[in-house]
Amino acid sequence: MYGYAIIQRKYDDKGNKTEERFCDADGKLIIPKMCGYAIMQAKYDEEAIPMPTEECFYGADEKLIVPENYGYAIAQRKYDSKRNEIPAEERYYGTDGKLIVPEQYGYAIMQTKYDNKRNISETRYYGVDEKLKENIFGFAIIERQLNDHGNVINWHYYSPDEKLIEGEELRLIEENMTQFFLH
Question: Do 23 and 42 meet the contact criterion of CB atoms below 8 Å apart?
Fold first, then answer.
């Protein structure tokens, strides 16, 4: 049913999972359909929260692969000094080590800014050329205005040329986001 008989895992001294391997009953590496990789390796920054700063996926031949449900072979994350859970920057790479745009995200790089109360205030999306790019919802920048209690009171969406998105274009973005989160 699952396509594997053995899962082997390694952890660092802080309890973070650093490696996961899927094997058949004979101990040979296999790729289960549920995850799309035979090996996952993760690295952690001692100063960051217990979230990986790098994730890599490998096939049964122990070479980098792009699992379908991830859309990248390598993810690299940088966290800010306040150790917020969502990385200040996240980058996706293919098996060749070059930036890649996972279909399910629509961007190669995501940069997130926080206010002084650790609330997300802005997120920017970039393509493989490291220029602003629309994500799967149709915007390149989202700004959030918050009240004193940390509640979002206004959202502003911007195009790759940093122009405010309004009218019908804004309605389509909101419709896309609603459909995505309902399914």
Answer: no
| Residues 138, 143, 147, 150, Cα dihedral to 10° | 80
Cα–Cα distance list, 165 to 15, 109, 159, 175 (Å): 44, 21, 6, 14
| Helix and strand totals (H; E) in the chain | 1, 10
Tokens of 138: 């149709």
Q: Which of 110, 40, 47 is nearest to 70 (CA)?
A: 40
**pTM of the model as a whole:** 0.88
Quote the tokens at residue 70.
Answer: 């991830």
CA 183 to chain centre: 19
DSSP strands (E only) in 94-151: 109-114, 120-126, 141-146
Exposure on the CB side of residue 141, measured as CA atoms within 13 A: 15
Q: Give dist(CA 138, CA 31) in Å, integer.
A: 33
List pLDDT tens digits, range 44-56. Answer: 987 656 789 999 9
Q: Which of residues 30 and 154 earns the better pLDDT score?
A: 30
